[in-house]
Design goal:
The complex is a heterodimer. In chain A, 0% of the residues lie in helices and 52% in strands. In chain A, strands 2, 4, 5, 9, 10 and 11 form a six-stranded mixed sheet that branches. In chain A, strands 1-3-8-7-6 form a five-stranded antiparallel sheet, with no helix packed on it. In chain A, strand 6 and strand 7 form a beta hairpin. Chain A is globular. In chain A, 32% of the residues are buried. Chain B is mainly beta. In chain B, strands 2, 4, 5, 6, 9, 10 and 11 form a seven-stranded mixed sheet that branches. Classes of the chains: A mainly beta, B mainly beta. At the A-B interface, strand 5 of A face strand 4, strand 5, strand 9 and strand 10 of B.
Chain lengths: 113, 117
């Protein structure tokens, strides 16, 4: 029940295209859903996050779509660039105190010129 | 954004020795810090959660006597890998959460690459 399932495992997108990464969760207590970007040899960096009271959140080229009834959320990267090539992790947690974050398995994105 | 640093960024040690990794929140007070381990091409595995001034809470399967965690202040947590063995070689990442903007946001350090020979 604590799992966050992420797909695809890897993704190759041409420059200028749209990258889409999907995640699904089971625990209905989760109410905070961040996405992290990680470059090789570096720690993850918070990219964008959403709470279930909204269905979409956009920050620049990055958009999170959230479907509460389906318990699914996705990251869309518009106009993908080679510099976006990294591993992306979705995550989920319950708010309050020091609830731990449950991470997805990661998606390795490669944007080719 | 909030900045979390780790030191050292990489370390090589001999089997049987102990290694200490520091995690610091540079511009905010971290009420809670987390330690993760990451294997190549894998997701982050939570090892333990520590709150300032109290004992760390370890995840199931993590040896608390081997991975000593101290959260002595609101800006510093340390992970000591005791009697390190080659199988302890990994990428260790800390994260910190505090009373800034949102209590739900974890800010990650850059990670420490540990190689045990």
């Amino acid at each position: 029940q604590q799992q966050v399932k992420q797909s695809p495992q890897s993704l190759i997108v041409q420059k200028g295209g749209i990258s889409i990464i999907n995640c699904a969760y089971e625990n209905t207590a989760f109410d905070y859903f961040p996405w992290y970007q990680q470059f090789p040899g570096k720690g993850p960096a918070l990219l964008i996050a959403i709470r279930p009271d909204v269905s979409e959140k956009k920050e620049g080229r990055f958009t999170i779509s959230f479907n509460k009834s389906a318990k699914q959320f996705s990251l869309h990267i518009m106009d993908s660039q080679p510099g976006d090539s990294a591993t992306y992790f979705c995550a989920a947690k319950s708010t309050g105190g020091y609830q731990k974050v449950t991470f997805g398995t990661g998606t390795k994105l490669q944007v080719i010129p | 954004g909030a900045v979390v640093s780790q030191h050292p960024s990489w370390v090589i040690c001999k089997s049987g020795t102990s290694v200490k990794i520091e995690c610091r929140s540079l511009d905010f007070q971290a009420t809670t810090m987390f330690w993760y381990r990451q294997f190549p091409k894998k997701s982050l595995m939570l090892m333990a959660t520590s709150n300032e001034g109290s004992k760390a809470t370890y995840e199931q399967g993590v040896e608390k006597d081997k991975f000593l965690i101290n959260h002595a202040s609101l800006t510093l947590s340390t992970l000591t890998v005791t009697s390190a063995h080659p199988e302890d070689s990994s990428f260790y990442i800390c994260s910190a959460m505090g009373a800034i903007s949102s209590t739900d946001t974890q800010y990650f350090g850059p990670g420490t690459r540990l190689t045990v020979l």
